[in-house]
Design goal:
9 strands; alpha+beta; nine-stranded antiparallel sheet; disordered N terminus; flat; single chain
Length: 110
């Protein structure tokens, strides 16, 4: 009985460490930019390459330029936000084809 208990304890500990390791390998980082007073964010793909970069306001709204990348590191989207609303010219690269979308007051026009 004691051996079964030790085996179960070891198994639970191994599972706990595996889950903890996954949490430690974060897929995002946040850092306060003291110059802009925005929170700079970087998100990562499972392979470690950057997925997205951009900034948030203190109340969590997207702000400024956001970039998206595919798993190979190629830029796929350049987007702009103003206080959480889509704005300006967004550039999408889809299968090597560039598509531009203009946003005014959070509404797209081609």
């Amino acid at each position: 009985m004691k051996n079964i208990f030790i085996l179960l304890l070891a198994l639970c500990t191994t599972v706990s460490f595996a889950q903890e390791e996954k949490v430690l390998k974060q897929d995002k980082t946040f850092k306060l930019n003291k110059v802009t007073n925005l929170i700079d964010a970087v998100y990562y793909h499972d392979n470690g390459k950057v997925s997205q970069t951009g900034s948030f306001t203190a109340d969590g709204k997207l702000q400024g330029e956001w970039l998206s990348f595919d798993e190979k590191g190629n830029k796929t989207i350049t987007a702009y936000y103003d206080n959480g609303k889509k704005t300006g010219k967004w550039i999408h690269v889809i299968n090597g084809v560039i598509k531009e979308v203009n946003y005014s007051k959070n509404v797209a026009s081609l």
